[in-house]
Amino acid sequence: MQKQQAEQETVPLNGDEAIALAAKQCDVDVVAAYPITPQTIIVEKFSEYVANGEVQTEFVCTESEHSAMTACIAAAATGARTFTASASAGLALMHEMLFVASGSRVPIVMAVANRALSSPLNIHGDQSDSMAERDSGWLQIYVENAQEAYDTIIQAFKIAEETEVSLPIIVGLDGFTISHTLENVNILKDNTVKKYVGERKLPTVVNQEGKTLPYKLDPENPMTMGPNVSPNFYFEFKRQQEEGMRVALKKIQEVNSEFAQLTGRSYGNGLIDSYQLDGAEIAIVVVGSTAGTLKVIVDQLRQEGIKAGILRLRTFRPFPVDALRAALKNIKTIAVMDKSMSFGGFGGPVFNEIRNALYDSKERPTIVNYIFGLGGRDSSPRDLRRIYEDLIRVNKTGRVESTVHYLGLRE
Amino acid sequence: MSSKEKSWREMPIAGVCTKSSIGFMTGDWKTYMPVRDLEKCTTCLTCVMMCPEGAIKWRPEMGKIEFDFSFCKGCGICANECPTKAITMKLPDEEE
């Protein structure tokens, strides 16, 4: 039976404003943040909600991002629903505490308006900041537009707060391209979101007397979080975190389907979002807003009779190996786009993992890498079309002249 | 590794510890210990407030300050903060 969709309204919002609104509607208890471009609008807008009495949130202004993340961890440890936002140098300054958050299993939701890292200083969009936090134990979902940014923040609380997941989550949106660009966004009613997200659930622990307690800091039932753990035990806790990631693979798909019933919107299976991939011979794998421009190119190519497709990797952590293998099974030639660099490595971080995932394929495809858009360098439709033209040539000749390319770089 | 230890599935989330830490005598590895000169002490309680371990107790019923050496780590903050310099840090064998 088709469930009736919730009432919605179309409003003009940029990506940052859409995220602030989503966090407000999720009835967040604590926001601790420090402003940084291109994320600033998120916490600026949220502080307006606080000042206007539109939310009951405790808003903590900190002196640095390291402190902001520390305050978020402490708040989340008491059972509070916690949100923050950052980017670039701010996220880098949080680095140490990101591991404390994931290791403490606190489901903080953080929007990252992806931005380049210094030096030289650059405030524009690329994904170097959150890609550098790949191994911090946070879930990572990257969005394509402001609508998805809004939807994904709501979904993020459902995913992260699932007790068997209990991991913090980064929702990445391309700096300026999404954060500062005005779009029509369909928004839900406050009550609809509040009801959908519900109260935060907590994992349980059994204390010394055999009593089951919620995992939270509570003066009535004191417990030590983040204790000193010897080599005899540490490894096991890291394996527990990995299990949280594996449960998240299922939970992200489940939330994607639930959300589709509520709003009529879904993003592939939640992990990967394909476009014209059925019957495609060549394909581009991309993360973030560039997928939007690529769709225009693919439509043109399809009209010209070229079997081209797109796979947008929406969930980067946990890495959806099985979904990727199934989706790319029949593709002969693949280009992976990376909006960040791994200096001295063999291609970018996304390329490395995609190629690794497909290594065991029966008919191993040819896979090349395009580093692009660093420091906000624009990738025009013409640049992107050139990648498909390269793929057509490689697909025809079977010859790869070089594996790693720099798109739009002056040679 | 002993197979009697719990597996990762059986261990509590994130290494949470519900046992009270009162039983862990964290003061047993100190080098220096605070020694108070009762003639100089004005019981202003600065040391009680400053001790990061809560190891200096004010007993109002007795009008006394007590050091709990089971938890005093010998950091010397009390000696540094004491306005009348009534506390000095000494090696245990220097203590009179």
Q: Give the neighbour order of strands across the main sheet of chain B.
A: 1-4
- Tell me the CATH architecture of the largest domain in chain A: 3-Layer(aba) Sandwich
- Strand percentage of chain A: 15-25%
Largest sheet of chain B: 2 strands, antiparallel
General shape of chain A: globular
What's the CATH first level of the largest domain in chain A?
A: Alpha Beta
- For the secondary structure, the number of strands of chain B is 4
Q: Considering DSSP H and I runs of 4 or more, what fraction of the residues of chain B is helical?
A: 10-25%
What is the CATH topology assignment of the largest domain in chain A?
A: Rossmann fold
CATH superfamily of the largest domain in chain A: Thiamin diphosphate (ThDP)-binding fold, Pyr/PP domains
- Using the 3D structure, state the CATH architecture of the domain at 30-90 in chain B: 2-Layer Sandwich
Describe this structure as you would to a colleague.
- The complex is a heterodimer of chains A (411) and B (96).
- Chain A is α/β, with parallel strands linked by helices and 411 residues long.
- Chain A folds into 2 domains: 8-202 and 233-263, 3-Layer(aba) Sandwich (Rossmann fold); 272-406, 3-Layer(aba) Sandwich (Rossmann fold), CATH 3.40.50.
- Chain A contains 12 helices and 17 strands.
- Chain A has helices at residues 15-25, 40-51, 65-77, 88-103, 128-131, 146-160, 190-197, 234-263, 290-303, 321-327, 349-357, 381-397; strands spanning 8-13, 30-33, 58-61, 82-86, 109-114, 139-142, 169-174, 183-188, 204-206, 212-214, 272-275, 282-286, 308-313, 315-317, 333-338, 366-371, 404-406.
- In chain A, the strands form 4 sheets. Chain A has a 7-stranded mixed beta sheet with strand order 3-2-4-5-7-6-14, sandwiched between helices. Chain A has a 6-stranded mixed beta sheet with strand order 11-13-12-15-16-17, with helices on both faces.
- In chain A, helix 12 links the parallel strand 16 (366-371) and strand 17.
- In chain A, helix 1 packs across helix 2, helix 1 runs parallel beside helix 6 and helix 3 packs parallel to helix 4 (88-103).
- The longest helix of chain A has 30 residues, at 234-263.
- Chain A is globular, with a radius of gyration of 21 Å.
- The relative contact order of chain A is 0.12.
- The mean pLDDT of chain A is 97.
- By secondary structure, chain B is of the alpha+beta class.
- Chain B has a domain at 30-90: 2-Layer Sandwich (Alpha-Beta Plaits).
- Helix content of chain B is 10%, strand content 17%.
- Chain B has helices at residues 46-50, 77-81; strands spanning 33-36, 56-59, 64-67, 87-90.
- In chain B, the strands form 2 sheets. In chain B, strands 1-4 form a two-stranded antiparallel sheet. A two-stranded antiparallel sheet of chain B has the order 2-3.
- In chain B, a hairpin with a 4-residue loop joins strand 2 (56-59) and strand 3.
- Chain B is elongated.
- The mean pLDDT of chain B is 91.
- Chains A and B meet through helix 8 of A and loops of B.
